[in-house]
Write a structure and sequence with these properties.
Order of helices and strands: EEHHHHHHEEEEEE
Distance between the termini: 24 Å
Number of domains: 2
Largest sheet: 6 strands, antiparallel
Number of strands: 8
């Protein structure tokens, strides 16, 4: 299921309709229309049967995943990757705050001051402006990433499977397409959704298929990255 592109058809039925049908998110009329098509469309029917089997297996795995040593061991590499990514992200956020002293331009300007005092003053002024621009750009990026976190939570909470939501940051720095693919309700009031996310930034895009879960009213948390596409130039 995760490899299907947005807008693709399975048999004669749009994938988004089958996702919503499998998750029981269609109204009565739409559900009956899909079932009429399934009676005649063997390819779409096979997909629905396999999807429901896969949902059952995934739900069973999720119910047991947190209660076995094997599950913890399997989850550990993902947690390590997420923590490493977070540390890398945090270090990038802190870099602009280190000031112009640690900027490579400063070392060059400090050397030139011995020969060209006037030029050095101009260089420091220019470097300061460049540094301020870098700080402003990094701030905009961080604000955009925080905003998309909120949009992602809204989509996971309210948008039916198969429906695509497009989003763009106020400054246009980041654009995203979010599409829930399937919904799983497991034991202990756990509610999980698989979704496809396309992030576009600086003429590059990244495609991810992710399984996120929440318990009761807790925040959504990433449980499994099913596919993380290569960053490619658009």
């Amino acid at each position: 299921m995760s490899e299907l592109e947005i807008g693709e058809k399975i048999g004669k039925v749009e994938a988004r309709l089958l996702y919503a049908y499998i998750d029981r998110e269609l109204n009565e009329q739409s559900r009956q229309e899909v079932e009429e098509i399934l009676r005649l469309d063997q390819e779409a029917l096979r997909f629905v049967i396999e999807a429901k089997k896969f949902n059952t297996l995934t739900r069973m795995a999720l119910d047991a995943e947190l209660n076995t040593p094997e599950a913890h061991a399997a989850q550990a590499p993902l947690n390590d990757q997420l923590m490493a990514y977070q540390r890398k992200s945090d270090s990038r956020k802190l870099y602009p705050q280190m000031g112009i002293v640690n900027h490579p331009y400063f070392a060059i300007a400090a050397t030139l001051v011995l020969l060209f005092v006037g030029y050095q003053i101009g260089s420091l002024s220019l470097d300061f402006k460049v540094q301020q621009q870098l700080i402003a750009m990094e701030t905009e990026k961080n604000n955009s990433l925080r905003a998309i976190d909120g949009e992602r939570n809204r989509v996971l909470e309210y948008i039916p499977s198969g429906q695509t939501e497009k989003w763009q940051s106020e400054n246009g720095y980041i654009r995203a397409e979010l599409m829930p693919i399937r919904t799983l309700r497991t034991e202990n009031n756990r509610y999980c959704r698989e979704y496809k996310e396309v992030l576009m930034q600086n003429e590059k895009s990244e495609v991810r298929h992710v399984l996120s879960c929440r318990v009761d009213k807790e925040a959504w948390k990433t449980k499994l990255i099913l596919f993380n596409g290569e960053i490619t130039t658009m």
